[in-house]
Amino acid sequence: MFGLMVRFTCKDDAAAAAFDDLVERTGEHIRAHEPGTVIYAVHRVDGRPLERVFYELYRDEDAFQEHESKDYVRLFLAERDQYLSDTEVDRLDFVSGKGVRVEQ
């Protein structure tokens, strides 16, 4: 398994709404076309209305690279920065979990 946790901070309320729309459009494609993407979850942060946290879990590094190569992901990456004031990315090394089948 390969994962990411990404924290985005939007510039303002209007930017947050536009970013959420971009996220939803991108997510539709991810759900439809990426069997190697195990989890792609986006959360609002309670008490911090401009923050979004993404939790992404991929079958393996190849599935992540496949995700990154998609046109709709490239469009997301190209458009997102206009809405954001900060981005933090953590690469995750899966240890254990519930609800996720790990094939070795």
From TrEMBL:
Q: Which InterPro entries match?
A: ABM_dom, Dimeric_a/b-barrel
- Annotated ABM domain ranges read 2-94
Q: Name one Pfam family in it.
A: ABM
The protein depicted here goes by the name ABM domain-containing protein
